[in-house]
Write a structure and sequence with these properties.
Structural class: alpha+beta
Number of domains: 2
Radius of gyration: 13 Å
Distance between the termini: 25 Å
InterPro entries: DUF2314
Shape: globular
Largest sheet: 3 strands, mixed
Order of helices and strands: EEEEHHE
């Protein structure tokens, strides 16, 4: 079992909210993300989202991604 905190405003799902603690079984994880300092590890579903942003807006979060 993994435990995390919802750290954004969900745009599609309605059963969670920002700041809520969430527990999930390993087999139910399709993507994952954690931060250490100012670096972002995982979060691969961010990549297709960033290409829809203007370059100036995407540069900052893209620089924090560890791939």
């Amino acid at each position: 079992m993994f435990i995390g905190v919802i750290s954004n405003d969900p745009g599609i799902v309605t059963n969670v909210e920002y700041g809520q603690e969430w527990k999930i079984k390993k087999e139910d994880i399709s993507d994952w993300m954690y931060t250490r300092g100012d670096k972002i590890y995982g979060g691969y579903t961010i990549d297709p989202l960033l290409v829809t942003y203007p370059k100036e807006e995407a540069d900052e979060p893209r620089a924090k991604l560890v791939r």
